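Complex record, three chains
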Amino acid sequence: MTVKRPVIRKDGKDKVTGRAQYVDDLCFPNMIYGVSVRSSVARGKIQKITYEGDLPWKDITVATSHDLPGPNVVAHILQDQQCLATENVQHPDEAILLLAHPDRQLLEEARRKVRVEIDPLPSIHSIEDSLNQKTVIWGKDNILKSFVIEKGNIAPLWNEAALVVQGEYRTGAQEQLYIEPNGMIASVSPAGITVWGSMQCPYYVHHALMVAFNLPKEKVRVIQTETGGGFGGKEDYPSMIACHAALLSLKSGKPVKIIYDRAEDMACTTKRHPSITRHKTALSKDGKLLAMDIEFLLDGGAYATMSPVVLSRGAIHAAGAYNCPNIRITAKALATNTAPYGAFRGFGAPQSLFALEMHMDRIALQAGLTPEEFRARNFLQEGHVTATGQTLRENPDLPGLMGTALNALGYHAKRANYADHNRNPNSRIKKGVGFSVFLHGAGFTGSGEKNLASVVAVEATPFGRVRVLASSTEIGQGARTVFAQLAADALGIDYDQVDVAQPDTHIVPNSGPTVASRTTMIVGKLVETAAIGLKEILIQSGHLKSECSTEDFSDQFRNACASYIKAAGPLKSFAQYQQPGHIQWDDTKYQGDAYGTFTWAVYAAEVSVDLTTYEARVDNFVAAQEVGKVIHPVLAAGQIEGGVTQGIGYALYEEVRLENGRMINNRMTNYIVPTAQDVPPIQVIFAENPYAHGPHGAKGIGELPLDGVAPAILNAVAFATGTTLTEIPLLPETLMRAMSNE
Amino acid sequence: MRGYVPAYEVKSPETLTEALSILQAQPGKWKPLAGGTDLMVLLESGVLENRNLLNLQGLKELTGISVSPAEITIGALSTFRQILEHDLLKTEFPLLAAAARSIGAIAIQNRATIGGNIANASPAADSPPALIAHDAVIELVSSTGSRRLSYAEFHQGYKKTQLATDELIRAIILPRTQADTGSNDFFFYRKVGTRKAQAISKICFAGRFHPCSPGNLRLVFGSVAPTVLRCIQTEAIIQGGGLDLKTIQKAKDSLTRELSPIDDIRSTAEYRLRVSLNLLEDFLILARQKQSHVELGS
Amino acid sequence: MSNSAKITISCRINQRPCSFETYPMTRLIDLIRDDEHFTGTKEGCGEGECGACSVLMNGELVNSCLVPAVQVNGADIITIEGIIRENKFSALQEAFVDFGGVQCGICTPGMVMATVYLLGKNPNPTEAEIREAIAGNICRCTGYTKIFEAIQHACGKLGALQ
């Protein structure tokens, strides 16, 4: 068995020796480079384009939307985003035209010398201005998506309640900051388009190319190269770059490589949606939730792109891990003239859960209960019904998880000690502890998995080597390793006998996008099923005995593969997703089983706040979670530690500064992520409660760790300083103001 | 957008004399290039305006840290790594060693030079407050000779220095007079950056206090004025009034008048002022504790 | 648009003598990657902030995106490929993999270079010294915890070998 053991990750050696090939490491004969010329204004009408300067313009390939064989769109959920702006620009840095040339230096100079004259139009840059329709910039009313989730009836409760607590909470944008910038290479020939690049979702790119180039699916081939991090940032945007590179290749007749530099990547590509969440909560006199009225607003940027689904996940998570009979969640994603916001680990849930978990501490304070006691009175349990009407079929042991996390931090003793310490007026360093309780729905929301109907294949060679074929990408999280573990165990062969194919749409079936914490739980289960199917083929066909000794099983398996292939040809087994019968979802009403299962977590933080500088620092962090079953202990802990660190950034450091819709701190000098010296010891604790439909009981864990970090930290800072906090990032400047306002 | 690399011309003189004669022949044309940690960043973002660069690398006259009984001379091309690993600098000039260690991270410290940090004249530079607090002297050299001036007078305004177009910074000289009394000097360096490493300062403070020599008091701030600032009026208040709470409050009022912080991409004027006042207070309270220790003979 | 003259640069990269005809302000990283095809050195930011392009130049850890060609003349450059060749650090590289210090891998070569530089100066670093040594190398995947564990483990092993 390899599952549950820390086998050596498949891609480890190539990465640690620098041999792994990322897109910028590839070079093809006659390959030239491509760059984009972008909008200088937030919104306007393109008037005139001139090519200036003493440059060899005739040698430079220029492409505009008019060169596209198909419609000028980057196909996502709605087809509203232009591949290249033609008449109107909707946000700063929107791509208008493309240039290609063999000399990269010359290209940089050339893009400075393209003058695009744009008549500016009024633009909007806040959720409030969009909602008030200061100017209508999208559709009839700036609303990219809106819906209401209702359970029970909140209306009669406000007068009956012993306590009503209101709060408004805000979160800023967050840049994924994968260390490998976005990039693509495209080669177009009469046979079709091939692209190689850094991406999470090869079939998204495939679809976008089919649409924009008006090609049948067999004429488009997408190959994922080693990908240096994604975190959601390489979910939809690579489709745009692939279309651009392919267009330049079509026009020039040569392979074209586009690699964004860091400044361009940060300014133009997607980020986490900024949000405003308003809570109004009614409480009974025994501290039970009676009604929750939640308004959840996202800034979606200039085009819809992923906003409708980010809004869904965020809204569904807005009532968190608590049981409440009456809930109304009003959700809206609004258009503004900034680059479209997109997927980022957590996908709307970190925003709504930040608001909720800050609000829970606020309610506890007003109700005169400790944060842990108030939460414990309201935890979801098996049989409870969530905001969408989903009856919980699992029993999340939230009291147990909370006890584990708080004990591991030494929460109770520290809370008492720090309360004393903080009363001393001479202490310039205030100390605090705080925590959050949360959940994360694993896999696509609602009927998403059913609609995707993902497929995985497993094949074997005559030499008994097994290969997993899936479009799910290795982006650092360990997909390759986990798939190999699951296939090896399903077949009863060595982990080293299993290879995982590099995703290539000509070779691998569509196992769906690498998003939504679905790769291990959903696709991994398909890998397991396909591998079992392969073994069944060998047994059914008589090439493998059903009862065989484990000692020389590898030899028997190898012989069986060889004899089967000789007799019957290729040996390959497919598995397709079948939705478990218990999942029922109504897309129109947002009612039903939003997720097949949830992961559950309690995160606890210990902080110091320096009253000289108003800097908050995390000194200790405990992340306790129930994740079904752990498949690979080192990789799983790595996911949590990495997610927590991104969460620390989200809470305390990472601010996207916009000026008229343009990111002005789009460099790593000014966009601040944690370094090795900013991160505390992180203690990771896994509780297990197997999920029947996950491989070996596993649930998805990729996004979970980002959801609850910021509220745990801010609750600790609020305790340390005695200040009400409602906003992230909590920069020292923000904390100073909050403390002076108290 | 990246700068256009082919447009940049670089001269690499083999001797200081040659370098100076190039500067003299075409004043203002050649911008000195030392460790490249600032200029290469400007080039990357397409804003390195001067297209003629004078590569100083390897000029022996500008390298090395030499020690005499009276002073330590730090060649302009000394890297911050060389500075922070120098044993005497660490013990006698701890503010400078602390500043060096707070710059960027190790790969930056290995390339960035003290001369470059000074010549770049950013108000957010980390070493100037320390140098001023240590009473550094700067030596400038040109074809016609060399001159020494107090480093505190070198920076004249935003990105404005006393360096003439035909001059180079040859060295920073740290007077070792304080070595005699240094055991009682109290030093305080605090860089308030955007994070612990790889950070540009939002406020930087270097303070020096001697319980028996009030004249040794130095209060120097970075990032809160157009240039690094020694707060002489505030120093005078402490020198005249001591370290009682009332005088400390007067010093804070004075500091408010002396500083002129601004809002920028890294912080706000409001924050910079408030934190500067807090740093001053922290420093003076610690200084008072040192003083009472001395008075108690401990 | 006028171009300056190209210059000839001679240096050693991974013990191999190299000669380039290039512009004086061409970045060292471009010489390493484009001309010599040592693509293990990665570019994450182009401004010395992320550390992915870290190499050793005359034994010193540097960001190769911040070194102009004109300053490379005569230098001895070691990249991740040169580290592999030495074999001396295979225990370190194994520890990075075994302990989970590698995820997406894009920061890894630079992280290994920073660690090699640290261990050359200080074979038994404390955790604080390790954190300082790799503070110029941004990792967005691991949260650094498993990188510390890998380095600490490797120190023990490398120490035992010495």
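Note: Chain B touches chain A at residues 1-6, 41, 44-46, 105, 192, 194-200, 203, 265-268, 270-271, 274-275, 278-279, 282 (CB under 8 Å).
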